[in-house]
Amino acid sequence: MSVEPLSADFTAAGQVTVDDMPRLVKEGYTAILCLRPDDEEPEQPKAAEIAAAAEAAGLQFGLMPMRSSERPDEEMLRRLQNIINDLKGDDAKARIYAYCRSGGRVRIAYDLLRALPDRKHVAAHKFDVVIVGGGSGGIATAASLIKRRPDLTIAVIEPAAAHYYQPAWTLVGGGAFSKHATRRTEASVMPKDVNWVHHAVAAFHPENDMILLEDETEISYKALVVATGVTLNFDAIPGLEETLGKNGVTSNYRYDLAPYTWELVQGLKTGKAIFTQPPAPFKCAGAPQKAVYLSCDAWAKRRVNDAISVEFDVAGPALFGVKDFVPVLMSYIQRYKVDLQLNSKLVHVDGEAKTATFERQAGGKTEIVTRQFDMLHVVPPQSAPKIVRESALANAEGYLAVDPETLQHITFKNVFGVGDVIGTSNAKTAAAARKQAPIIAENLLAMMDSRELPYAYDGYGGCPLTVENGKVVLAEFGYGGKLMPSFPKWIINGFKPSRVSWTLKKFGLPFIYWNAMLKGREIMLGLKRR
Q: Do the domains 3-115 and 234-379 sit in the same CATH topology, yes or no?
């Protein structure tokens, strides 16, 4: 097999086999990149086989098939570069082992990539619709718009090269899901008929129907959709950021840290485990306690639970925001012997000393309590991004000021919002964004056509609360805590832990996300007319 290092972090090689994975790990590679289509030769290993073996060995896997007779054009090379960027991520020590039949296609593609002209600056443009943010809400909205009106000119502004299915990170932290299965390239999920502007936004200028990119390029629009998501403010808790990923401090709210959660759970046999929940609002209202339940379930299965003291510090006054689900959740708090501390906010972490300090409210008084820990799982405070908070689009709390039903901005009528960034009282979940996207598509097009906005968002949010490995309480609710179950009780009773709900959480919802939501296939939504 031909092998040729093309740089310190990129190697061209011929066909690999599943048996090569341990060797490549030992040689310091972090990712495998396949440029070879399947079935070029009868005995050729399929890409899916290599991908599975790579994942099992802890290697990332990327796929960009190129025929031997095919000279990649600029668009293909841009996609390839995005895949390479995704495989490297933020890892300064990342090394990619790229293969085809003999290594020749890899070398040609690599040389063409190096000769590719720099396109950091995009030409000033005016689009029918500009969507800021290429996460779940932004991509789903783009797909819903294209489905309804294919001739629209749409730009999605997103600087990241990777796209994540974040709802599964709690399962990664519980040892029930692969980290790599939650991540794909942004290029692979971008609808083919939209323009991907691979840059960051510096400022909104809604009074001029324009946004400014960080390179000072102006992008104009007829309609704007803000889908930036929220910012995770780990640095808002002194001492936290510098100890994340070590000293027993972790968070399922980051792709790189969720596996560390499971590592800590597996390694802990005795001691103190503390879990935190920040002040609202924060995305995925159930995620902080899911980490508690999955960890406790794993310790119970290993019969070390009696030797581990578990504390759950919740900054708010209740375990869960919808009171109907509190009894079943409290039964698990009691079952796992969790010391539940309400009105207890994390304010400082000392990783080396392994102490966590809390500000606790009780009887109108505030006390400061410092606790030792062996494991600390933190959910950080969250806010709208700075570019939203400091813009004319923000409400008093810094979130996007939209009408809670139409999702149209209360001042700038050609601006809409989707997902976690909007200043509404619904739960910030992927399920909420899935329902919001087609409503925004319908209402935005009505606005452009000078018609009355036809649809209303009812605040729907779904929160599959993983109370043990194999069982989920499926909480579905709308504005004001109104119960909004999607299934008859004989299929899924939202007040009882269910294996059916677990199957939906682990297998059904990821499939719907990648194959329906992000592709404009709107199933089981029940949109409500105004």
A: no
